[in-house]
Amino acid sequence: MKTNEIRGKDDSEILFDIGESEKEMFQMKFRSLTEGNTDPAKIRRLRRDIGRMKTILREREKGIRGQEPR
Fold first, then answer.
1. For residue 70, is it within any domain?
2. What 3-state DSSP class applies to 38?
3. Distance (Å, whole) CA 41 – CA 1
4. How many distinct structural domains can be found in the chain?
């Protein structure tokens, strides 16, 4: 997910996406331990997407950057 897409969303939408991404990442990690055939690059992408979303929420909280129009 790109930062422009994230910045176009409301805080509640971002929080929902974070929750869904964290659930998916947990399932992928668990599946990789049991089956051993998941794509490690996808786990890395999910982790970085979650970090981006949390960073943008924190920027809004601190007033560094606001919500950009869609």
1. no
2. coil
3. 14
4. 1
Q: What pLDDT sits at residue 70?
A: 46
CATH number at residue 33: 1.10.287
51-68 pLDDT per residue, tens? 999 999 999 999 887 655
- Cβ 57 vs Cβ 15: under 8 Å: yes
The residues, ordered by sequence, that sit 6+ positions from 56 with a Cβ below 8 Å of its Cβ are 3, 6, 7, 14, 65
Residue 39 clears pLDDT 70, i.e. is over it = yes
**Full domain range(s) for residue 24:** 3-61
Q: Read off the DSSP letter of residue 66.
A: -
Structure confidence at residue 68 (pLDDT): 57
pLDDT given for residue 36 in this prediction: 80
Between CA 38 and CA 21 the distance in angstroms is 16
Q: Is residue 25 part of a domain?
A: yes
